[in-house]
UniProtKB/TrEMBL annotation:
The lineage of its organism: Bacteria, Pseudomonadati, Pseudomonadota, Gammaproteobacteria, Enterobacterales. It is found in: Cell membrane. It is an enzyme of class 3 (hydrolase). The chain crosses the membrane at residues 12-32. Keywords: Cell membrane, Coiled coil, Hydrolase, Membrane, Protease, Serine protease, Transmembrane, Transmembrane helix. NCBIfam families: PRK11778.1 (NF008745). It holds the Pfam family Peptidase_S49_N. Residues 36-92 form a coiled coil. This is Protease SohB. The gene is sohB. GO terms for biological process: proteolysis. PANTHER family: PEPTIDASE S49, PROTEASE SOHB-RELATED. SUPFAM superfamilies: ClpP/crotonase (SSF52096). Belongs to the peptidase S49 family.
Length: 348
């Protein structure tokens, strides 16, 4: 028994030392990463990817003998191209004018639209190098969310419009409410036949536990400075005056939403489409909400002729400490905070 006791104590000491070293290592790495860039810009040559895929399919359909001849011809071709490039590099020459580029961005929006932090970096990167003949395609998917988040996302796209860079938004699944607020900034909207489009409206809801708390003899005190600092509450007793003010705020937000869409797409009968309803792609075309029915794949393939397709994506790095600890308590706090905030903020 004494031997087992000493052995257990020894293991406990070893475990304590190992954990302490691990924690220190994580802290050091986390502090080091803070000094580094929080994300990186990833550029993908989509035109080359498509060409490679097309070539791979063509070769796969050949028989074994034809494939062998093809690979032999490709090796010879690559050698000649490499030799020509080497000779060209030695000679003085004017740089070739690159093809017009199509910058392809992706936005898959969540309720709080936190993806806008990457979108702003991508737009900034494009604006830094884009020429007059270039254009941007945004593959958009979003059912909407908080007003301020999608308002900022729309403003980021507006930066492209202000610089006279043609913008096309492609919707394969859904661009509703705040998602449509983003889409309508584009010069052209292309939607898949069964994609969900529209939902130009505003909604907000909040549960109220006041009667339950009263039955349990629990008092809730809410102190504010300003008559309408808090109109509806989660725990306190709501008043008809507060409800009326809350509805007025929703209507004001809806009017701003309608005005923005009308400004971006003047030909729309805004009163007809701003009812909060949504339509499928083919129906949205009839309503004037979109300009063309089709998928993003067909759109990009149609733009490849004489152009270079370039994918632009800004990837944010997660802190090592967040990945290592995966704190459940922190996640629960964020979830509760968002839930409370959503009750006070209207959603598009």
């Amino acid at each position: 028994m004494e031997l087992l006791s000493e052995y257990g104590l020894f293991l406990a000491k070893i475990a304590t030392v190992v954990i302490a070293i691990a924690v220190i290592a994580v802290l050091i790495v986390n502090l080091t990463q803070r000094k580094r860039q929080r994300g990186e810009l990833r550029i993908t040559r989509l035109s080359e990817q498509y060409t490679d895929m097309k070539e791979e399919m063509s070769v796969a359909l050949l028989d074994a003998h034809e494939q062998k001849l093809w690979h032999k011809a490709q090796k010879k071709k690559h050698k000649l191209e490499a030799k020509a490039a080497k000779q060209k590099a030695k000679q003085e020459h004017r740089p070739e004018v690159p093809k017009p580029r199509v910058y392809v961005l992706d936005f898959k929006g969540s309720m709080d639209a936190h993806e806008v932090s990457s979108l702003r970096e991508e737009v900034t990167a494009v604006l830094a190098v884009a020429r007059a003949e270039d254009q941007v395609v945004l593959r958009l998917e979003s059912p909407g969310g908080v007003v301020h988040g999608y308002g900022l996302a729309s403003s980021q796209l507006q930066r492209l419009r202000d610089k006279q860079i043609p913008l096309t938004v492609a919707v394969d699944k859904v661009a509703a409410s705040g998602g449509y607020m983003m889409a309508c900034v584009a010069d052209k909207i292309v939607a898949a036949p069964f994609s969900i489009i529209g939902s130009i409206g505003v909604v907000a809801q909040i549960p109220n536990f006041n009667r339950f708390l009263k039955n349990k003899d629990i008092d809730v005190e809410l102190h504010t400075a300003g008559q309408y600092k808090r109109t509806l509450t989660l725990l306190g007793e709501n008043t008809e005056e507060g409800r009326q003010k809350f509805r007025e705020d929703l209507n004001d937000t809806h009017q701003l939403f309608k005005g923005f869409v009308k400004e971006m797409r003047p030909s729309l009968d805004i009163d007809q489409v701003a009812t909060g309803e949504h339509w499928y792609g083919t129906q949205a075309l009839d309503k004037g909400l979109v300009d063309q029915v089709g998928t993003s794949d067909d759109l990009l393939l149609s733009l490849m002729e004489g152009r270079e397709l370039v994918g632009v994506r800004y990837m944010r790095r997660k802190k090592l400490m967040d990945r290592f600890t995966n704190s459940a308590a922190e996640s629960a706090d964020r979830l509760l905070l968002r839930w409370l905030q959503r009750g006070q903020k209207p959603l598009l």
